[in-house]
Specification:
Blueprint lengths: L3 H7 L13 H8 L5 E8 L5 E8 L5 H16 L8 E5 L18 E10 L2 E10 L2 E10 L2 H17 L6 E13 L2 E12 L2 E10 L4 H13 L9
Parallel strand pairs: 2-3
Antiparallel strand pairs: 1-2, 4-5, 5-6, 7-8, 8-9
Helix pairs in contact: 4-5
């Protein structure tokens, strides 16, 4: 965590007792809103002081400008000044950007089919996704329990996604569930993007409309859709 109060004390500024510590993940998520940033990793000391910020970005913006944008984002969102020397920028090759110079468009998988079969106490789930015009079939097998079946649907979805793109990064399922929310039932999924820069977790959700399996696939994709472009770089 980044301790805002401690930073203010160190600089002799007044401390607001209502201020709380900011999680590094919150800063990473804020930086991920920038279209040029593919991934971000914030390294903080035990007392909450930002030591390093590592960013993987598209080559569509000059590094100095990107650093200024990062400083502005963190100051505007969290009130934390950042020394530009603590920001490290790694940019992708220019072949990762379309010839028209625009940033890579997001990749949105489309659900083609969801299948399941039971053999004794085991269930096998298959999820077929269309990604960038090609079909990818993901599979997962495990115990035929209610929670087990829910996890298998999400894991099969991630297995299909893993067959798309280049190596060096992957998605891991943390948890998935279908929960009541008001008068509705909602599928929620937590997925972690694992890369050479470390780990980033994302959550997704989808109202249960057609059926539970379909909603779990949609919730899983909702968690990772904004990071799909990372798999192609």
């Amino acid at each position: 965590m980044v301790d805002v109060q401690q930073r203010r004390r160190n600089q002799g500024e007044p401390v607001d007792p209502q201020e709380t510590r900011v999680r590094a993940e919150e800063i990473e998520e804020a930086l991920a809103q920038d279209a040029e940033i593919k991934a971000a990793r914030v390294v903080a000391s035990p007392d909450g002081v930002i030591q390093e910020i590592h960013v993987l970005a598209s080559p569509t913006k000059a590094p100095k400008q990107l650093v200024r944008d990062i400083e502005s984002t963190i100051m505007a969102r969290f009130g934390i000044p950042i020394d530009h020397k603590k920001v490290s920028i790694a940019q992708l090759g220019h072949d990762a950007v379309p010839k028209n110079g625009s940033a890579p468009s997001s990749v949105r998988p489309k659900i083609i089919s969801i299948t399941s079969s039971v053999a004794g106490v085991l269930t096998t789930v298959g999820v077929t996704l269309e990604i960038s015009g090609s079909d990818f079939i993901g599979k997962a097998a495990g115990p035929n329990s209610q929670t087990g079946r829910q996890r298998l649907v999400a894991e099969a979805t991630l297995d299909a996604v893993s067959q798309f793109g280049v190596g060096g990064h992957t998605f891991a399922l943390e948890d998935v569930a279908v929960v009541p929310l008001g008068k509705e039932r909602v599928a929620v999924a937590c997925v972690t993007l694992v890369s050479t820069l470390g780990e980033q977790s994302f959550a997704g959700s989808a109202l249960v409309r057609q059926n539970e399996k379909d909603s779990i696939v949609r919730a899983t994709l909702d968690a990772i859709n904004r990071r799909m472009g990372f798999l192609t770089s």
